[in-house]
Predict the structure.
Amino acid sequence: MVDNRYATALVIACVLSIIATVYLSVAVGTQHWYQYISPPVYGEANATELHVLQEEFMHGEFDEKTYSDSLFRLNGTVGLWWRCLQVPIEPHWYKEPDPKMVIDCVSFTLTQQFTPKYKEPGNHNSGEDMIRTYLWRCQFLLPLVSLGLVVLAGIIGFCACLCHSLAPTLGIGVLHLLAGLCTLATVCCFLAGMDLLHRVSMLPDRVDASLGWSLYLALISSPLHMMAAALLVWAARSHSQNYYRMTAYRVA
C-alpha cells in the first residue's frame, strides 16, 4: 500500500518527466538554437555574392568557414542537427523593398558531427582546435545520452508498476538527475562552442546574433528533469524510512 503523499509525488514526477522529455526532443530536432539577423542587401553585386554563398551552403562540400559565412550573411539559424538559411524566392529580390523569403535547411550528417574543428575555420593547415572539436561532439552526444537515460528510467518504472514495487524509485530518480545534468551540459557546450567560433571568425558588421527558442526549450527541460528526480528520491527515501519504522514497530 502506497501512501497518498508518495503517490502524488510519483504522479507529479511522471508529468514533469514527460514534459521535460518532450521539450528536449523538440529542441534536439529543431534548428533554432542560435540565430543571426543580417542587414538588408542593396545592389546586384552583393546579391550575386550572397547567391554564391547560398549555392555553396546547399550543394558545396562541408566546410565550417563556408557554412558559417553563409549563416552570418543570410539570416541563418543553427541547431544540433540542422543549419538553415532564410533566402528570397525571386531572382531579383534585391530590387524589392520586402521580398518573400523561404527557409532552406541542410542537416549535419553523422560524419560531419565528428569532423575536427580547426584553429582557423577553413584552414586545415592551422591545426586542430581540440576544445571546439570536443565541445561540438559533446553537444551532439550528450542530449542523446539524456534521452537514453530517460527511456531507461521509463522502462524500469513501467516494470516496477507491474511488480507493484517502489524499490527502483531511487534509481529512477538518479537516472533523471543524470539526464538533467547531461541536458544542462549540452547547453553549456553549445554556448561555449559558439562563443569560441565567434572569436576565431569575426561577425560581419551590422549582424546581430541571439539565442533561439530551441535552446530555451532544452534549458527548461534540465530543471524539470531535476525536479522530477528530487520528487522520486524523496518518495523513495521517505517510503523506505516509513517501511523500516513499521517493521520495527511490528517486531517490537
Observations:
- The chain is about 65% helix and 10% strand.
- The first helix runs from residue 4 to 29.
